[in-house]
Amino acid sequence: MPEPADASARGRLLLRVLGAIGGGLLLVISFPPYDVVWLAPPALAVMTLSWHGVRARRGFWLGLLSGAAFLLWHLHWMTVIGDDAWLLLGLAFSLFYGLIGAGVAATSQLRVWPLAVPLMWVAVEALRGRVPFGGFPWGDLAFGQTTTTLTPYAAWGGAPLVSFAIAFIGALLAYAWTVRDRPRAAVGTLVAVAVVSTAGGLVPLPVEGETAGGPAYTTAAVVQGNVAGPGMDAFGDTRALVLSNHVRETERLAADVRAGRAPQPDLVIWPENASDLDPYANPDARRLIQQAVDAVDAPVLVGAVVTKPDDPTHIWNVGIVWQPAGGGQGGGPTSFYVKQHPVPFGEWVPFRDILAKVITRFDRVPRDFAPGDSTGVLQVGPALVGDLICFEVAYDDLSRNAVRGDGVTGPLAGEGARILAVQTNNATYGLTGQPEQQMAMSRLRAVEHGRAVLVAATSGISAVVAPDGTIEQQLPEFVAGHLVAEVPLRDTLTVADRLGALPALAALAGALGLLVVVLVRSRRRRDVGFMESRPSEESLP
Q1: With the C-alpha atoms ordered 18, 22, 23, 25, is the resulting torsion angle positive or negative?
Q2: pLDDT tens digits for 365-410?
Q3: I need a surface site. Which of 18, 124, 306, 416 has the fewest CB within 10 A?
Q4: CB within 8 A of 250, min separation 6: which ones?
Q5: Beta carbons of 420 and 385 less than 8 angstroms apart
């Protein structure tokens, strides 16, 4: 028979394990496509309580359980690629949640531990968004809070501040539970929860056009041509068909304009991979694109895959500004943006020589995508457009650089984007919930930068997002269609734009500082314990 003390300890450990897993599962439901956003604070509170008050080592593996419970469900759309890819990605990035759990556990002894919790979350999210292979920020807390009173915090401190706010609320709820036998402390903590939860609603979110020169508004169109169907073979051998679909839908848009059913657009956005045929090398692709551009009589930002000019062993994922023949610029392709952050294992294969021998699926990526080296700000008609291609919308620095003009080269050097475009191809992950998750990121970026966002997807979800994050128009998945809307052009930088990476760096510094305090205290206690255990000199023989 186990001793009562042992049975009690095992029971407490079981509760922690269930809390770690249950908190991760609840957190999933707060994200798209479920959007039960109010579950996020209790989910984080449950996870925090499961990690709080244990040794850092135990906090690590409890955090690992939370991360696995969250990511393996949240990223289940990866099973379209393969169960092995899904498991490897989910379990590998669960290690970062282990770091959060270890950090929360280690700082449990501090009186400021409720503040330590959000610092650990933001610090580790900043790390996870950068390593390995450029990081993978999918699932950051901020991306689950794009329709709440916490969303406006993005305009002040970007996605890191939104993540901080939701983690802080969760920590305060956990603290309220630990002091439930002290009514005044518990009530005061719940008041703090209410303040943090609602104060974001006081952040002004302007949506009017406002530029230093030129028009304050433009009429933009988004085209969704559609593909054959979801899954890995959404394009397959039908690359020309996908291009034809986007040409056909653009011609329908032109017909609507001529019939007076739609206003004449100043610019048109096509999705990523709208042409998987290289229009620089394929005369038929070039002819079809020019045909569509001339029909709509407006510059089109065309998503295409092209061979890298100086290296035929690599390809580029690009957004090309394509001018109509009657537009005064001679017609055809002009400036372009090359995707800066190709997806590892999806668009390029690390350790290809080794992995390709054992994973035949990598044959689907016969040539690696090479990254671009400049920020995607393009002049498309009257608008300076910041181009983000697919998963790039998840990375804080790419949209921020576009709005601030950092890293822009050529004639537009130093110019910042007045609207943002997200060109994406989510056909592989259609009907899995992944498109909804990515749309949430676009909505957060709109608020973060105070810019309208035009989302063009091959198969959906395409949308026009206002600078306050409101979806003004959208198209569902796997239908062909187009959207036309007047959108504001804005020059003003938000506080988040001006601060740049400082909020994330501040959280990292704060988290490290608290861990140093813990280490110093632990060493002092060990030294004191050692001295107290030493015999006095009088007792020595």
Answers
A1: positive
A2: 668 889 999 999 999 999 999 999 999 999 999 999 999 999 999 9
A3: 18
A4: 223, 225, 268, 270, 292, 293, 295, 296, 300, 482
A5: yes
Q: Which residues pair with 490 in a beta bridge?
A: 210
d(CA 472, CA 277): 32
Distance CA 520, CA 109 (A): 12
Reading the block at residue 214, the tokens are 């030129």
In this prediction, residue 466 has a pLDDT band, given cuts at 50, 70 and 90, of very high
Q: Cα-Cα-Cα-Cα dihedral of 506, 512, 515, 520, to 10°?
A: -110
Q: Report residue 101 CA to chain centroid gap.
A: 22
Task: Give the model confidence (pLDDT) of 20-58 as tens digits.
Answer: 999 999 999 999 999 999 999 999 999 999 999 999 999
Counted residue by residue, the chain has a size of 541
Q: What gap in Å lies between CA 447 and CA 152, rounded to an integer?
A: 7
Query: CA angle 487-140-494, nearest 5°?
Result: 40
Question: Residue 56 is which amino acid?
Answer: A
Strands (DSSP E) along 414-480, which ranges? 419-424, 453-457, 462-465, 471-475
The arrangement of strands across the sheet holding 419-424 comes to 377-380, 383-389, 419-424, 453-457, 462-465, 471-475
Parallel, antiparallel or unpaired: strands 332-338 and 377-380? unpaired
Q: What gap in Å lies between CA 485 and CA 219, rounded to an integer?
A: 6
Q: Are 366 and 333 in contact (CB under 8 A)?
A: no
The number of CA neighbours under 13 Å toward the Cβ of 468 is: 14
Compute the distance between CA of residue 374 and CA of residue 364 in angstroms, rounded to an integer. 27
Backbone angles phi, psi at 261, to 5 degrees: -85, -15
CA distance 326 to 357: 51
- DSSP assignment of 204-266 equals ----S-B-SSS-SEEEEEEEE---S-SSTTSSTT-HHHHHHHHHHHHHHHHHHHHTTSSPPPS
User: What's the CA angle centered on 377, arms 374 and 380, to 5 degrees?
Assistant: 140
- Whole-number Å distance between alpha carbons of 346 and 429: 13
Mention every residue, 6+ apart, whose C-beta is less than 8 A from residue 378: 301, 319, 321, 335, 336, 337, 384, 385, 387, 412
Q: Are 378 and 319 in contact (CB under 8 A)?
A: yes
| First vs last C-alpha separation in the chain | 47
Catalytic residues: 272, 339, 390
